[in-house]
Amino acid sequence: MKVPSPGESITEVEIAAWLVEDGDYVEKDQPIAEVDSDKATLELPAEESGIITLKAEEGDAVNVGEVVCLIDMSAAKPAGDAPKAPATPKPEVKAAVKEAPKTATYATGTASPAAKKVLAEKGMDASAVKGNGKDGRITKEDAVKAVPSMGTQPANGARGTERKKMSMLRRKVAERLVAVKSETAMLTTFNEVNMQPIFDLRTQYKEAFKAKHGVGLGFMSFFTLAVVRALEMYPDVNSMIDGDFQIKHDFQDISIAVSGPKGLMVPVIRNAEGLSFRGVESEVKRLALRARDGQITIDEMTGGTFTITNGGVFGSMLSTPIINPPQSGILGMHNIVNRPMAVNGEVVIQPIMYVALSYDHRIIDGRESVGFLVAVKEALENPVELLMNNDPTKALEM
Fold it and tell me: How confident is the model at residue 82 (pLDDT cuts 50, 70, 90)?
């Protein structure tokens, strides 16, 4: 079996985990491995039934089209489904070998040029590393495995460390986030939203909405439709830079950040401008479940003209979200806290959410960014008029 192409522009994947062992009998279409690309984790199904021979190790980076396993289709399926008996561990017998004491030479404790570079990047001195090379020389492998000192170890308490390679997806996310900070003129503007009107609507309609549509009436539909309205008012926020050109979109594909088993995923709600409250909630639920189960496809995460991220589900009060390139704007939602507000000259307690808009100042000016966020705030604080055309019953039945 060869590694299939997970999508355009992807030439390499990483074997994240084998789901079978070497020599197992596998059925056709049975998932045999999980592979990481820089965009998603995908399952690799068996192309035929037979005895499998693995040709790559977990953690190996393999090119698209490279053979990763063999399946002997002529092998008969083993009778019965009895599990294999665990092997009885045999005590390991080692001959006692007395090592001759090593004589210190000029090479002892000296780092090779490659090791010096690695140690310099870690801010470590060669004297803190034990060399395992010839005559005690510090090799590159010694430098890579070396862990910087964490201070004087106390007499009590465990101080273990673990060295684990990041997944290809996490490495790509890290690379993109650093690139955003250095390649865009990112700025963030903030505002606050009184969520009481949305609370009132949900209290009144959520039971009937769920009974009719089979999904809950959450906050994401209100925020998505408020963003769609604001993007139509401020099209620069719904654009991106391509070299010396600005590309504006006449549609709103809204990316939503969701937490998946391998980290952050950003699936896309296509043509959100044409969706109702029910349409948005159904799509959010579908995409979130697929991300959670590791079934999200690269196509479902490709594109998007604007992103919404909700740190509030984890308890965040305020943050500066990072733009999802090549987009030019991202809206950050946060937790809802009862706070005192001045309403008609009186102090009242209201459920308040702080919202943040990070934007690329190269093509979005202060007027557009502030105006956009104010438009989102206005729609959320007056949803009946601005999102439901003064008829919430009809808006929520669609």
Answer: very low
